[in-house]
Amino acid sequence: MKCQKLLCLGMAAMLACSSLPGITASAQEIQTQEEFTKAEGNTETGFRYMELENCTLEITKYVGSSTDIEIPSEIDGKKVTSIGRGAFGDCSSLTGIRIPDSVTSIGIKAFWACSSLTSIRIPDSVTSIGRGAFSNCSSLTSISIPSGMTSIEIDAFCGCNNLTSISIPNSVTSIGSGAFENCSSLTSISIPSGVTSIGSCAFNGCSSLTSISIPPGVTSIEYETFCNCSSLVGINIPDSVTSIGGYAFVSCSGLTNISIPNSVTSIETGAFMCCSSLASINIPDSVTSIGDDAFWECSGLTSIRIPDSMTYIGEAAFYICSNLKDVYYAGSREQWSRIEILEGNQCLISAAIH
């Protein structure tokens, strides 16, 4: 039942993508009125624009009727350098767009809900793509991120449920929260070795993702990072990771094995909840605590190794692990009796302790 509720939460997250309530712009992300000059206007082809302080132009809105468009590099002799917040938002008939090399920034929700958009060329001149810029572009199948980018912002491609491939350049060092959330057709992704931060829910609901390697600079797997990645069968966690966050792999029902490195010191609440294909797991010596619901309803789990460093096992950590038969404990029976094991762990307590 709890697993079904978590799947419902995944659906709720997908719906949340459509409104993106969490996207609030900082002072750096939205230019104030003082940063604009008085010059603004419209082109005959439907582009509204505003002149920036540096005498370049920002496209503020598209009101034309074409379905395949090319953004001009210049208007009245002035260079177009920016695509503003929501400029093409909800242009549901737009199928293709070409961005000129003059553009360096794409604003928050710039192409949000362009549900018919199948292709877009982002030039290498672009160094900044705002939060939710391509969220809910549900017909987009592939995209290449420019080589000058250092971060993929929050919800950047959230809800792009037909996205099958994406190219991330080596320049990227961080992937924001919900960046690829509910990209349900994404089967694989190569994360560059320079990435040191992957935000919460970054790959939540990527139900076709079969494998992924976490780069060696990442220190934590955040809340719900791989939640509902039901096709994920294996994952490589590097020695740099020290914590596995709450619900990090919840409902990864295809996950058959996972290697937890000795660097990990804690496994948080619900981290592997409803991983029904997980047959065995080796808890490293570095781990001292297992959070509540950590392995809740891992119905395929038959054996587990627990180190003598363990001091605490949270409530219902092994609840409904009905096939758990063998616990291989590294310490003595006296040490085992000193572990604080909370209620709801009858499956663990009833197993044979070796």
What does this structure look like?
The chain has 354 residues and is mainly beta. The chain is 8% helix and 24% strand. Strands 1, 2, 3, 5, 6, 8 and 10 form a 7-stranded mixed β-sheet that branches. It has a 6-stranded parallel β-sheet with strand order 17-19-21-23-25-27, with no helix packed on it. Strands 22-24-26-28 form a 4-stranded parallel β-sheet. The two termini are 32 Å apart.
Structure summarized in a few sentences:
This protein has a domain at 242-354: Alpha-Beta Horseshoe (Leucine-rich repeat, LRR (right-handed beta-alpha superhelix)), CATH 3.80.10.10. 8% of the residues lie in helices and 24% in strands. The chain has three helices and 28 strands.
Shape: elongated
Low-confidence stretches: 21-38
- CATH-defined superfamily of the domain at 242-354: Ribonuclease Inhibitor
Indicate the structural class. Answer: mainly beta
- Main sheet attributes: strand count, strand direction, barrel closure: 7 strands, mixed
Give a topology summary.
Blueprint: H1 2-19, E1 36-42, E2 47-52, E3 57-62, E4 68-70, E5 74-75, E6 78-83, E7 96-98, E8 105-106, E9 119-121, E10 128-129, E11 142-144, E12 151-152, E13 165-167, E14 174-175, E15 197-198, E16 211-213, E17 220-221, E18 234-236, E19 243-244, E20 257-259, E21 266-267, E22 280-282, E23 289-290, E24 303-306, E25 312-313, E26 326-329, H2 333-338, E27 340-341, H3 346-350, E28 352-353
Parallel strand pairs: 3-6, 4-7, 6-8, 7-9, 8-10, 11-13, 12-14, 14-15, 16-18, 17-19, 18-20, 19-21, 21-23, 22-24, 23-25, 24-26, 25-27, 26-28
Antiparallel strand pairs: 1-2, 2-3, 5-6
